[in-house]
Structures are given as structure tokens and as C-alpha cells.
User: Fold these one by one.
Assistant:
Number 1:
Amino acid sequence: MYVRGIRGATTVEQNEEQQILSATIELLHAIVDANKFEPEDISCVWITVTEELTATFPARAIRQMSGWEMVPLMCALEIPVQNSLKNCIRLMVQVNTEKKQHEVQHIYLNGARALRPDLAGS
């Protein structure tokens, strides 16, 4: 068994609570679907947002998902690098799995596809 980090990122159009919550759920579902794990397999989830996203904590969305109530979550502010992608939510899901590093599927949605075009797919 290994602990693997699974990366994911997405963007929202505006700093609005519902957009942030919906985008977070969409991203997490995409990561889970692509990598086939259950909440019980999760060590923890790190969540970062860019500095302009202040309407809510993205962790609120995950805490409301059935089965995810006990998964440790942590929100933080992304380093504000000049000319970096705005309105971005990033996840680092640390999962206990038998998958090898090259078998893990990282997920990049919406404007965040620009962060890792090599992993974002079509």
C-alpha cells in the first residue's frame, strides 16, 4: 500500500459562494471517478485557493458530501505569484492505494487546464 498525492485544479468565473462550492464538488468527483477510491481510503485533502476567492471555504462543499464527514481537510491560500492563474481552486488528495505513481490520474478542469496541459487531456 502506498500513500499517493493526486492533484487537481479548477477555476470559477467569480468570487461567489455557490460557484466555489460547486466547482470544488465537481473537481473532487472527477478525481474520485478517475482514480476509483472511497473516502475511507483518504489520508487527507489539502485545498488552496487564489487570494481573490474569499466568499467561502471550499472544504465546506466536501464536508457536506455523504461519507466525507471524517476526512481531514485543510484550506490555505495559494502563494500569490505575479501573473498566475486567478480564481483557482487546487486540491491535493492524499490517498492510500495500490496504484503506482504513473497510474494516478490528476485532474485539471476549466481554466486550470493551462496549469498542466500535459495532464489535462483534451
Number 2:
Amino acid sequence: MLSAGVALAGLAPAAHADPIYPAPDPDPFYAQPADVADHNPGDVLAVRPMPPLLMFPETAVTMVKFRSTNSEGGPIAAITTVLTPREHQPGGPLLSYQHIINGLGAQCAVSRVLYTNDPNLQVKEAVALNVALRRGWSVALPDHLGPNFAYGAAKLGGQITLDGVRAVKRVPELGVADSRVAMAGYSGGGMATAWAAALAPTYAPELEFAGAATGGVPMNLEKMVSQLGWQPHPAFGLAMAAAIGLEREYPDRLPISTQMNGAGLAARNAMANGCTNEIMAIGAGHSAREFAAGTSMLDDPTALSVLRENSLELFDGVPNMPIFEWHSASDPLIPVDAIVNTDNRYCAAGVRLDEDVNPSPEHLSAAVLGLPSALDWIDARMRGVPAPTTC
């Protein structure tokens, strides 16, 4: 039996199985406007003040809806939530923090998690973000998976992050039009951050960044899927969620549902609107071999190209800003060699890169160990101190 009560449903291939998309958010603020294509990336579509949050005292909360671009160049609307502390002065620093979103459903969005009472859905970095707020920084928290919650679509996350920065700088009441800007994120949030940094020179060349801090970034999805997918693994749910999310973003190029057997479709349907706990529980101890009706897609160049297009190790662009990169040398969830290869390529291209390899034996504790150093590094960049390098 599958965990979380999902029953095995036979091994026959799915003759026809369309992608499964998340249930729409009932709040009309999240809806895709009919005229979204009439706007340019970063254009502000709507602004909504939100109730204050106990976890961020003396801080105003504002949701900004803006136009962005999906992975295949189409127009989408996305959301970022801006925290403006009492200490903020006009032109004071702006940090775009890409929170970890291991989710496939609307309730997993950061803008939703901020206002939920579910103890399983928390902004775990609230303490660190409060440090930033008390320094007078504004903090933007984008919903970087997009309207279809395309978990795994890393390039999409980078584009949404950049357009979110564009948008909040265009909202006069936020007072960040002339602000120094930095970005940060870990794991899935690190993917969005690292891609934003790499895409910035071509996707948003008008933006200037003081730097970007990226931690625990899965920089090669092809390697990661291979690592987590074909043998039973406690974190297999993350690999399956990435397959579901990428199919949502690339339904014609990666029709993974058509390759699932009945058990696979049952698991897919069970996690289609889930967040971290549901995804991990449903997938724990399972593998793609149990859920696949065949393996032809493993050799399909079109399908593989989707994974490669979202693998930063294989992207030829380099950031035009200093980078702080941290990870565990023995991280069991992500291919560390892909991080090392990417760091080396950035160094060879002249990027001011500060690599911090910490002693944590696994993925999540590495975030905790590295985040204080990342914030100190960002603080120095915000103050205009030249960036160090370990290249």
C-alpha cells in the first residue's frame, strides 16, 4: 500500500491522462486577468494592503499582483507579498526572499502560508526575516511557483522573482523605487534565487542587484531525478512533485501522466494539491519503478530537454552580481557535484563568488547553519562593502 491511504491501482499504462492542475484559489485577487497579455513583465496589476501579522511586529503587509512570463514565453499574473517595517526609510534596502515552497496546491503559496493557522505550513525563516526587518529592510516574498504551482520549474521561478522586484519598485507607497536590492533563498527558494541571478543580465538588464545568496540549490534536475527516482527513497515525493509541476508547465513536452500506471495516477491525484507533508508522506519509500507504466520517456530527447532547461549547471548565462553560495558537502537530497561545477564556471567567468561549505550532514540543517552568514554577507553588500571571493 502507498502511504497516506493511497491504494495501488494496477500496473496498466494510462491510455490518456491529462495533466492535473491545482484547484483554483477562491480569492479573486489570485485570478489571471483577461488582459494580462496587454501588460509588460513587471507591470503592476493590483495592490492590496493586508492585515498585520504577529510574526512580523510593527510591519505593514502589502500584496502586489504583477505580470510575469511562464517558461515558454506566455504572459501570467503572479503575486509577491511585501513586508515594510516601521524602521524602513524611503530608498532603504529591499530583500527579495524566495521562501521554500515544496507544494502543488494554492494553500502552499507564501502569501497564503503567512495567514494560515496550520502548524505544518509556517514561514520557518521568520526569525531571520525579522532580523532583516529590524535593520530597516523591506522584504518581498514572491509566490515563485506561478499560478499553476509548477514545482520544479526553476527558470519560471527566476523570472517571477525578477518581475516581482520590478513590480514592487513601481509601487510608490512601498518606498523602494531607489532601493539597493539583494536576493536570497534556500533549496527550492534557492533555485528561484539562483535562476533570477543568472537570468538578470538578459531578462531584466535594467535591474541592479547588490548580490544574491543561494543555498542548497538543486542545480541539475536530470541528476536529481535519477538520484531520487528509481530506487525507493524517503524523499521520492519531491521528485514526483517535480514531475507533476513540470508537466503543468510543459504539458506538450513532458506528458508524464501518460507514462504512469494506475498506482502512479492514484499517487499523483493524492498529492496534486498537497504541500510538503502530504507530498513527502505519499511518496516516502516509493520509486518511479512502482508508478511508471514504461520507461520510454527516460530516453525521449524532448522530455529530457525540459529537465536540462531547468538545470542551472547546464545554463550558459552567468550572474552580473556577487554571489554567496552555501551547501552541505554531503547533502543526500541534491547532486553536490552540480553545485561545485556551477560555482567553478561562475568563478571562471569572473563572478565574485563566496562559497561556504558547511559541516551539516543533511539538507535542512545546512539551511539553518548557513543563513546567518548569508544575511551578514547581504548586509555588507547593502552597505556597499566590496564582495569577497573564494574563487
